[in-house]
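ESCALATION

Customer reports they have been waiting on this structure for their group meeting. Please prioritize. Original submission:
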Amino acid sequence: MPAFISDLRYAIRMLRRNPGFAAVVILILAVGIGANTAMFSIVDGVLLRALPFREPQNLVAVEEVIPKFSHMAPAVPVNAAHFLEWRKQWSSAEELALLGGMTFNLNSDGEPERVSGARVSSNLFSMLGVRAQIGRSFLEEEDRPGRDQVVMISDALWQRRFHGDRSVLGRKIVLDGKPYEVIGVLPAGLRMPTLAQLFTVSSTGTIAEIWKQFAVRDDELDSMGDFNFACIARLRGGVTVSRALDELNAVQARIARGLPEKVELRASVEPLDKKMTTRARQGLLMLLAAVAAILLIVCVNIASLLISRASGRSREMAVRAALGASGARLLRQMLTESVVIAILGGALGVGLAYLALHVMLAQAPADLPRLNEIGIDGRVLLVAFALSLGSAVLFGIAPAWRNSRTDPQRDLKSGGRGSSQGREAGRLGAALVSVEVALSTTCLLAAGLLLNSFVRLASIDRGFDVERVMTVNLSLPPSRYPDMAKRAQFVRRVVDRVKALPGVSAAGMTTAVPLAGQHSTNLVSVEGTTAPVMERPLVEFSSVSSEYFAVIGIPLIEGRIFDEKDGDHGVAVISALTAARVWPGTSAIGKRFRLGGDDRPLLEIVGITGDVRGDQPQAPPNRTVYVPYWQRDRQDMALMVRTRMDPASIASSVRGEIRSMDAQLPVPRFRPMQEIVAAAFGERRFQLELVMLFAAVGLVLASLGIYGVVSYSVAQRRGEMGIRMALGATGPALRRMVLAESLRPVAVGLAAGLAATMALSRILRGLLFGVGVADPATMTGVMIVVLAVAAVACYVPASRMTNANPVTWLRYEQ
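Update from on-call: job pushed to the front of the queue and completed.
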C-alpha cells in the first residue's frame, strides 16, 4: 500500500506537470465512457433488468399460431373460448390472465375526456404481484357480465383528474354514459405491458389509465373467430418454456379436433420480458455495439498519445532503471498513471452520461418499452467504474509494457532520440491506426446502410397522402348512440358540417387510420365457395364514409366509390391487391362476397382502389376491404380532415362543430397525419440518429489518432528527412512518400472494417429495408470518406515537415 500511494502521488504530479495533455486525454476518455454509460443504462433498463413483477422469470406471454395464416402473421392474438379451455387443461400454467384494449369517454370531475383503458381478468394484478396503493384489486366474482361495473385507475389519472383525492375510492364515475365504482388506484410509476408489446401483429401501444374486469361475453366465445386478446401466464415452478409450449400445443390440438372445420392450431409461448422488448432488442444491441466501438477508438487514441509521450520519457525511465527500478516496478508506475487518468475520465464521463441520457430519452420513440425504468443508478455506476478500469488496462498496457523494457545504457546514450524504441513505437502506432480505422469504418458502414435504408423507406409509396391532413379519434357511447342508425346519423352530420367550414377541402370518417395500429381482420367468403372457413383469404377491413378516399388521397383504379344512394344494398370497395388475390385474372367489379362466415350478408364490389401500407411502413401493402359506415360501423372511429392551410389553424373550429353537436363527447387532440407517419418511423429514426452520431464521433477520433501517429512518426524521422532534403529531395516527393507510408495502415484498417461489417450482417440485415449489407454505393461512399479524412490527417504533418528548413532538422540530430 505505501508503494501504491507513492505511485499514485507521482502519477498525479506527472499529470499536473502536463495539464494540457492530461485535460485532452481525460476529456476524450470522458466522451467514450459517458456515451457507453448512457447507452448501457438504456439497454439495462429495457433488456437486462428483471420486470418489476413477482417472480418475473415465470411469467410468459402466450399467443396462438394458425399455420394456414403464418405467411401473414407468425402468431395471432388469443381467442377467448380457447383461453377458457387453457385454464382447464394447461397444467403447466399456475395462472392465466386475459387482456383486451378499449377506450372510455370519461364524463366526471371536469371536461369530457377520452381515456385509454383495458379489460383484464380479475387475477391479473395478483398474479403479477401488483397491489393498489389505495383501495383494493378486483374480486373473482366481479369478473362476470353485469357485475363488472368496478374499475381501477392509474396514479397518473388519479393525480390529473382527481387531484390525488383519496375520497375517489367508492365514488361513481361515468364512463361511456354508465356509472362505474372506483375501487383502487394503482401504484405510481407502474407500467403494465401494452397490447403492442404483447402482440406479434401491429397494434396501438397506448398506456391504459382505466382498468376494468374482463367479464367475457357470450358473443366473444366464437371458437372459430375473434382472435382479439392478449394472454399472460405464470408457469409453475421448475416448468421450462419448451415443456409448457409442448403441453399447450397438445391442448390446442384437442381444441382443433372439436371445431366444426378442420384447422390446425398451435401456440407461441415466450418469456414476458423478451416478448415485451422483441421489437427494440436488435436495434438497442446494435447501438450498444456502436458505442462500445467508440470507447475502443478512444482507448486506441489514448494509447497512441501515451506511446508518443512515453518516447519523450525514455530518459526518465532509463534513469529510474539505472537506480534499481525493476521492469515490474516501472510497469506498475505507468499503469497507475493510466488508472488515475481513467478514474478522472470516468467521473467526468458519468456527468456527461446524465446529460446524454436526458437528450437520448427525449429523442427516443414513445413506444420504447420500459421507458420509465431507464436511469443511472448504482448498478449503472458500477458498470461505469468497470469501464474506467477496463479502459485503463486497454490504453495503458501497451505504453507501460514498452517503457518497462527500457535499456538504461542505450537510452541514456541516445538521449531519447532516434533509438530503436522509436522504430518500435512507429510500428505499434501503425497497428493502432489500423484498429482505429477498422472500428470507425464499421460504424460508418452501419450508419450509411441505415441512412440508405431510411431514405428508401421514407420515399416508398405508402398509397396515401399526408399533406394538410389531420385526424381525431372519437368514441360514441352506447348509452346515447345505442344502434347503428344513430351512429350513422351522427357521422353524416359531423362530416357535412366540417366540410362546410372555411379552409376545409374534404372530410371523412374511418375506423382504421393508416399506420396508427388501428385495424380489424376478417375472412373473405366468395359467393358460392365451398372452401373451409379457415382456408379462405384473410383481409383487413375498415368502415368508412365515401369521402374518406378523397381525404387520404387513395386513388380509384376501377369502378366507383359507394355513396349514400346505395342505402342498405350491401356494397364494398376493395384494394387492388385484394382483387388480384381473390379474383385473379378477371375483373372483380360486380363480384359478391361475404366478410366473414357463410351467415354474413353478401356484399357487391363496386370499386377497386390503390393499395395502402396501413400496418407498418416497411410491411407490404395490406389486402383491404372498405365497407360503408352506415352498413357496418363501430363505436370507435376517427374523423379525418384535409385542409387548404395549416391543419392546426382550423382544429379549434372543427372541435367547436363536434362540441355543438354533442357537448358530452370528448374530443382529444387533433393529430396531423405527418405526425402519425413520423411516429411510425420513430424507432428507425432514433437508431439512425444515434448510429450516425457515434459514427461521426468515431471518424473524428480516428482522424485525430492518425494525425497524432503521423506527427510522431515525422518527428522521429526529422534527421532522415533533413538529409533527404539536403541531398535534393523535393517537398512534393517527400510528402508523397509520407502519405504512401501513412496510408498503408489506413488501407489495412479499411479492409478489416469492411470484413467486420460483413461478419455482422446477421445483426444489420434485420434493421435494413431495400438495401443489402454489401451495398456497393454505401461501401464506396464510406471508403471515399475514410480515405479522404485519413489523407487530410496525414497530409497536414507531412506538409508542415517538408515546408521547414532542412538545416533545422540536421541541427536537431547534432
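Sent to customer with the following note: Confidence is low (pLDDT under 50) at residues 415-420.
Escalation resolved.
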